[in-house]
Design goal:
There is one protein chain. By secondary structure, this protein is mainly α. It folds into 2 domains: about 140 residues, no CATH class; about 110 residues, no CATH class. It contains 9 helices and no strands. Helix 1 packs antiparallel against helix 5. The longest helix has about 35 residues. It starts with 13 loop residues before the first helix and ends with a helix. The mean pLDDT is about 90.
């Protein structure tokens, strides 16, 4: 478990919203660029993606403030897609390469903005539920394992960097961002699926096996990163390691919650 600042342990806080959007925009933009063979575009693209992330957070937070209540994940996804589409023309104006393929740029923007909007709405609604439950118990607000929502991004990035061992700055950024995105998938599997089995010990190797195919696919994305082992195999190892680490930490957090209750 990673000691992130306390303000980042509340997923609906302003800093957490910005971090969520930055990870989403940069992570998905990296996946799209690598998938379409545009890796050299990444240094410029990540700057534009970061700017879009900050502006989108301002727009979505303002929308949620006007609503004065948490809304559904679907509504958040729609709002996220719409705001991203509105930001796309500005991104194309800044980065000429995006303007060469306007339809593709719009599709990618919507594909990035929708999950960011969905996560912001979900975090706001779920945090409010936790706060209400804590108030009803008359105790301090305890976000439990949800306070560690950022950890999987770091586990994924670390696992991919260790396995791929990139050296060039661009390759390091691409590898870390792809690993971070795999980390959040691993967290979802641990939280929503492995938790059904009380995060038992056997779930760790099961998670590793489940992470290998996804890792192999991301290895194809990172095929330009020089490595002695073929990229799909390297990716499979990185994906398995990411899922196993996340499952192991999930087991520890689940055990801690059981003791607390």
């Amino acid at each position: 478990m990673i000691p992130f600042p306390r303000v980042l342990k509340r997923r609906s806080s302003w800093p957490s919203s910005v971090v969520t959007a930055l990870i989403g925009w940069n992570g998905f933009a990296t996946v799209a660029a690598l998938g379409f063979g545009r890796a050299p575009l990444l240094p410029s693209l990540l700057g534009v993606a970061s700017a879009c992330a900050v502006v989108q957070v301002l727009a979505l937070r303002a929308r949620l403030r006007v609503a004065r209540r948490p809304d559904g994940v679907i509504a958040g996804a729609i709002a996220g897609a719409v705001t991203a589409l509105l930001l796309a023309p500005g991104a194309m104006a800044v980065l000429a390469e995006l303007a060469w393929h306007p339809l593709l740029t719009l599709l990618v923007a919507a594909y990035i903005g929708a999950p960011v909007g969905a996560f912001l709405s979900y975090f706001r609604r779920d945090d409010e539920r936790i706060q209400q439950e804590s108030c009803s118990r008359g105790g301090p607000v305890d976000y439990g394992r949800d306070a560690h929502w950022l950890d999987p991004f770091a586990y994924g990035a670390a696992a991919y960097l260790v396995v791929f061992t990139p050296t060039a700055l661009g390759a390091v950024l691409a590898t870390a961002l792809v690993g971070a995105m795999v980390g959040v998938v691993a967290a979802g599997v641990s939280h929503f699926f492995l938790a059904r089995f009380a995060n038992a010990p056997f779930t760790i190797p099961v998670a590793a096996v489940a992470g290998a195919p996804l890792g192999a696919a991301t290895g194809w994305l990172l095929r330009a990163v020089p490595h002695a082992v073929p990229a799909p195999i390297t990716g499979a190892l990185a994906g398995a390691a990411c899922f196993a680490i996340t499952a192991a930490v999930g087991r520890r957090l689940a055990a801690r919650e059981r003791v607390a209750t």
